[in-house]
Design a protein that fits this description.
mainly alpha, about 0% strand, rod-shaped
C-alpha cells in the first residue's frame, strides 16, 4: 500500500495525506460537537489532558524512530548506487591492464551485468520490487573472468588485489541496493505509524473548547504536522520509488564511459 502511495506524484500524495486527512478530521470535530454538544465533551478536558499528553509522547517517540530509520536507509541506498557504479568503473579500468583476451572477457561480462541493471532491475526498483535471479547469475558470470585472472602469472599482485576488491565491492553494493529497494519499514511499524497518527488526531475530538473554531484550527494543524511525518516516511520508505527517489543515472554514466572508451 505505502509503495503505491509513494509512486503517486508528490503533489497529489501530499494533498491526499497532508491536506485531506486533516480536513476530514476538522469535519469530524464539527459533526461530533453538533451531535454530542459542548457540555457533554467539556467534562473530559481535565482527565483526557493527562492521557493525551502520555499518548502524544509515545507517538512522537515512535514517529521519530521510524523516520530516522527510513532516512538512514534512504542514505544507504544512495551510497549503494554510487559504490556499485564506482566499483564497476574500477573493474573496467583494471581490465585494460590485463592481457587482451582477459580484458575482453571481463569487460564483456561487466557490460552484460550493467545492461541488466539498467534495462531490468532499474525499472523494477522504480516499482518497489526486485528480481534477484538473473542479476545474481550475471554477477557470478562477472566473477569468473575475475577469478580466472588469478591463474595468470603475468598479472601483477597489486592489479589482482584491486580486481578482487572491486568485484567484492560490486557484490556488497548490489546487496545493499536490493535490500533498500524492498523497503525499510516492516508492515507492523507502517500500520503503527498510520493508525497511531489517526488515533492521536482523533483523540482531540474528546476535548471541548468554547471557541470551536480555535479548536478546529488546532486539530487541523496537529493533523498537518502528524501527516507530514507520515507523508515523509511513506515517500522515503521505498527509496527508488516516486518523485523523490534515489537517482540511478550513475549506471547510465558508467555505460557511456564504457562505450566511449577507445579500447
Amino acid at each position: 500500500m505505502h509503495a503505491g502511495l509513494a509512486d503517486l506524484p508528490v503533489i497529489l500524495a501530499a494533498m491526499l495525506m497532508i491536506l485531506l486527512i486533516p480536513a476530514l478530521a476538522i469535519a469530524g470535530l464539527f459533526l461530533l460537537r453538533r451531535h454530542i454538544g459542548f457540555e457533554a465533551l467539556v467534562v473530559n478536558n481535565e482527565v483526557a489532558g493527562f492521557k493525551y499528553a502520555t499518548m502524544g509522547v509515545a507517538y512522537a517517540v515512535l514517529a521519530t524512530f521510524v523516520l530516522v530509520s527510513v532516512w538512514e536507509k534512504y542514505e544507504e541506498a544512495e551510497a549503494a548506487v554510487a559504490a556499485e557504479a564506482t566499483a564497476m568503473v574500477k573493474l573496467f579500468r583494471l581490465a585494460e591492464t590485463l592481457p587482451a583476451l582477459d580484458e575482453s572477457r571481463l569487460q564483456g561480462a561487466l557490460g552484460d551485468y550493467l545492461n541488466h541493471v539498467i534495462a531490468v532491475e532499474s525499472p523494477q526498483m522504480r516499482e518497489g520490487r526486485t528480481s534477484h535471479e538473473e542479476g545474481a547469475r550475471l554477477l557470478d558470470a562477472l566473477g569468473q573472468p575475475v577469478f580466472a585472472v588469478a591463474s595468470v602469472e603475468a598479472v601483477p599482485p597489486p592489479v589482482l588485489d584491486n580486481l578482487l576488491a572491486a568485484y567484492a565491492d560490486v557484490i556488497d553494493a548490489r546487496r545493499a541496493r536490493i535490500d533498500a529497494a524492498d523497503g525499510s519499514l516492516p508492515d507492523i511499524l507502517w500500520w503503527l505509524v498510520v493508525l497511531g497518527g489517526l488515533i492521536t488526531i482523533g483523540f482531540t475530538f474528546f476535548f471541548a473548547s468554547p471557541n470551536i473554531l480555535a479548536q478546529a484550527a488546532m486539530t487541523g494543524l496537529l493533523g498537518i504536522i502528524i501527516m507530514s511525518l507520515v507523508f515523509t516516511t511513506v515517500m522515503m520508505n521505498h527509496p527508488f520509488v516516486g518523485d523523490i527517489a534515489v537517482g540511478l543515472g550513475a549506471y547510465e554514466e558508467v555505460r557511456q564511459l564504457m562505450a566511449a572508451d577507445p579500447h
